[in-house]
Amino acid sequence: MLYYIGRRLLQGFFVLLLVLVFTFTLPYFLPHGALNAAYFNCAEHQTKACIDTFANTYGLNQPYFQRLWHYLWGVFIHFNLGLSFKDSPPQITGILRVYIPRTFFLALSAFILATVVAIPLGIYQAWRRNRPADYWFTGVTFMMYATPPFVLGFLMLDAFAIHTFHLPDSPPLGVHPWAMFTDPKGFILPVLTLTSLQIGSYSRYMRSNVIDVLVQDYIRTARAKGCSPRQILMRHTFRNAMTSIVTVLGVSIPGLLAGAVITESVFNYPGLGLIVVQAAQDFDTMVVLGVTVVVTVMAVLGNLIADISLVFINPRIRIMGTEK
Amino acid sequence: MENLQVQFKMRTGNAIAVDNFSLTVESGQCVGIVGESGCGKSTTGFAIMQLLAGNGFITDGRIVFDGTDLATLSEKDMQDVRGNKIALIPQDPLTSLNPTTKIGRQVGEGYKIHRGASDEEATKRVLEVLEMVEMPRPKERLNQYPFELSGGLRQRVMIAMGLVCAPSLLIADEPTTALDVTIQEQILDIFDSLRKELAMSVILITHDMGVIAGRTDNVVVMYAGRKAEENTTEKLFATMRHPYTQALLASVPSIDASKGATLRSIAGLPPDLSKEIMACRFAPRCQYATAKCHNEDPPATVDKDGSEYACFYPVNGPAGLDEVKVEIRERTVSTKEILRITSLTKEFPIRSGPLRRKTGKVHAVSGVSFAVYEGETFGLVGESGCGKTTTGRMIVGLEHPNSGEIIFEDRDVTSMKGRATRALQRDRQMMFQDPYSSLNPRMKVGDIIREPLAIQKVGTHQEQVQQVARLMTAVGLDPASAQRHPHEFSGGQRQRIGLARALALNPKLVVADEPVSALDVSIQAQILNLMKELQQDLGVSFVMVSHDLAVVNYMADRIGVMYLGEIVEVGDSESVFRRPAHPYTQGLLNAVPLPDPKEAKNRKGIKIEGELPSSANPPSGCRFRTRCPRAQEVCAEVAPPMQSFGPVHEAACYFPLVTPVSVGATKAVRKSTKKSTGEV
Question: What is the pLDDT of residues A261-273, one digit of tens each?
């Protein structure tokens, strides 16, 4: 078990390393290469002096491998993500410390809410499959799945902030990241927007997983034993259906963060999404790189948590260390 | 069961899967239902339990159990009957257990549901029933998961689950089809003793006439949803009246069968039940059918023997020798070796830990040597997991041995890789076990057969297409169906396609891996006969890998018996099957169910107990010693060497069942034993 987690962490480390090297290298393909940011920032007076000063300040004129080594050393040894070209304070780690919790709590609450709704819904639909209720929910969940978050976000704003209920159109600004718990009203619409997207995909998966399980021979065995429909669902179906949904949940985390980014801009909420969009527009490559690190770590952790939960759900992995 | 009718709703209309079927099971009786697949046997079983698939309905008749008509019970009342008074043991123990629930809980669940037992009471009862089914180390099993057990042990778990509430009727649906013969024998013995101990009635559903013969009181032969014949087991086998019963029995390959005889098969397939049939259902496949049979439905008749049958022209007993076309085909087998393998070894690593390091290995094949002569069939038999398939795959180059040598046509082909093998591959082809998954469902049959020709660039496209047509005709398929996809063919036809593909390049050697194990006996016979015929015409050599001794006996000139990665006995099939030297061979032979009630009941001899040991950690010395009734201390020390028992007959055993041929040979053996002991 510990071996298993150890192996997964090691794999995760290499994934992070690869992603970092790749994203770090990308700006070198821009016009002027690594100096691109310098040219951008000296836009008005592109004098050699301005560019040299800028490049020297941020070490942009160092050789590629030296910069890369410094950066990786900083990230992995000092948890230092480097300097932003723009903001003050320029320490990216400091900037992210403010923005990460906002996005994290937004995404997490959407994730929990979606799971809690989608899994029972999927089971219910599978049990009543090909009957009116199933068709009905299938239609609704497909719509949730297919609607882009910004469309849904604006519809929500129009309906619940302007015409009815008069909910706040954006979460409270400038307050501490825990505002979600002290002043939840402003978070209702963004969380709902993000949730509905996830419900659509999770419940589709759950429905088809449960249907796959229900046609298995061991379900017939359970019926032959005299199990009631309820016992069949709870004792023989649920756990077996969970083994495949858990992986899906883990893999969906990057998508959830991507959804959060868009939702944040619709609701004007300063999270990771807003700063990454801003940074990209300003050629603030180090900030983009910093956010990439965060998202990669989240994705790796999401998968790791999914894999660890699988160990508890699927005895085969627990005992044999493998699925096969 | 009275006049039972079961219909399945299909897109094309309703199919009547079971029609006008009546059956009586007395308390304590064992009734067998036998027939080909798709004849409604399992459907009948499920109908009793009301476990038909969602589109299946009982449309007529009554199922009276202890005075209650089960067909009229509500789902809720039926839940009280299922697992409580009637239990079902399904066909496939590998898929019929919940993979994420512990054995103890699964077995005890029914007891808790029906008896309202507490956890402790249930556990106590589970241990009782696990002991009843002779489960080794029952306490350990409680906390194990199904995947930790072998197929045979899982089937014991299934039976234990069925017994937990002491039901008065047990429906066993092909309970041993997925198991090895040795394990099948053990499981059937358990059924027998339980039935006597618990005075339980059993409905045994099977396609295997051999299983029926030794174990049942009464037999019902089912064909196309109807009862073809019913009688007591002994009378049915001795004086059957329905031609279908006769044909079914005649298509079972027997270990005692004389070599040259052609196995009889039943031409064609069971009818499509979604169309109404106003004639004898068997008529299109019956050799005695007349115009009357094609126009009228024969009514059920009861003769003075108590036999009930539905036929206008009943037969009287099994097909006699005069009726079987005896064709003694003397094949001249040359003495030229086409293939010789020497000390072939294959190990698969077991990996674990964070870096997936090799922590052990499975010894799939450990030092196998034999030769195959031009134009002969070499049979490779043994239980599943003995390495026979791996050996076959290494011969055709699908797997590379860790050590040893493969000489094919005087050339060393052991570890050839890449381009160099392509030309050589031509002469060694493989025929696969599963006709369903070994054909690409998206390809047309003509293209499937043509593919080897295209890969090897044999002739022009036009010539290849012509060759495909010739091949299809040769294997008994209509060349016009080349444009169809595999799913449009039946299992037997698909196996013909597989054979045509294997023969496309006119190979010198074909490795056939369990070519008929997925087919019904009636179809099996067709394929085996076809393979024999083509061998005659083409002079191709076969290596026939099979767990079915009767099939190998019918096909093979020489036989190698494998146990846990080693050949324990090899020789001409006559010697190996008539005078086996190795106790394992004898045990395997004894486990084959005989399609003759009297012989089956009087059989004595070596019984192989227990399970195949793990090949990751095989026993020291003779690998069979852990299950061998003759094993002594010496067997655990040094592996016995091969000794000669005839001109071409060898076996590796210290205590063989027949005397080795020459004293000199024995001395040499002793010498080598001493020598190797010294080395150890």
Answer: 888 888 888 788 8
pLDDT band at B356 (very low <50, low <70, confident <90, very high): low
**Nearest chain A residue (CA) to B98:** A218
| In contact, B86 and B71? CB cutoff 8 Å | no
Residue B251 sits in the same domain as residue B309: yes
Examine the domain organization and report whether B509 and B582 are in the same domain.
Answer: yes
Strand order in the sheet with B337-352: B357-373, B337-352, B403-408, B411-412
Angle at the Cα of B122 (from B116 to B124), degrees rounded to 5?
A: 145
- Each residue's pLDDT tens digit, A163-189: 877 777 776 665 566 666 667 777 888
Are B98 and A313 in contact (CB < 8 Å)? no
Same domain, B512 and B363: yes
Label residue A192 by pLDDT band (50, 70, 90): confident
Q: Residues B526, B617: one domain?
A: yes
Residue B357 sits in a domain of what CATH number? 3.40.50.300
Q: Are both B306 and B372 inside the same structural domain?
A: no
Are residues B401 and B315 both part of a single domain? no
Chain B nearest C-alpha distance from A289 (Å): 30
- The answer to the question of residue B30 being in a domain is no
Whether B278 maps to a domain, the answer reads yes
Whether B542 and B419 map to the same domain: the answer is yes
Decide: helix, strand or coil at residue B430.
strand
Domain residues for the domain of B263 are 239-328
Are A221 and B82 within 8 A, CB to CB? no
Task: Calculate how close chain B gets to A221, using CA atoms only, in Å.
Answer: 6
- Both structure tokens of A133: 């209720």
Question: Which residues in chain B have Cβ-Cβ distances shorter than 8 Å to A221?
Answer: 88, 90, 96-98, 158, 161
- Tens digits of residue pLDDT in B119-173: 999 999 999 999 888 888 889 889 999 988 888 889 889 999 999 998 999 999 9
Which residues are CB-contacts of B562 (< 8 A; sequence separation ≥ 6)? B368, B380, B381, B382, B386, B387, B388, B391, B568
Q: Quick one: how far is CA A245 from the chain centroid?
A: 17
Domain count, chain B: 2
Instruction: Say if B146 falls within a structural domain.
Output: no
Backbone φ and ψ of B80, nearest 5°: -70, -25
For B553-585, the pLDDT digits (tens) are 888 989 999 999 999 999 988 889 888 999 999
- B270 and B348 in a single domain? The answer is no
pLDDT digits (tens, 9 = 90+) for A267-309: 888 788 888 888 888 888 888 888 888 888 888 888 888 888 8
CATH number of A99-320: 1.10.3720.10
Q: pLDDT-derived band of residue B440, with 50, 70 and 90 as boundaries?
A: very high
Interface test with chain A among B48, B100, B112, B614, by most A beta carbons within 10 Å: B100
Q: Record the tokens describing residue B382, joined without a space.
A: 């043994």
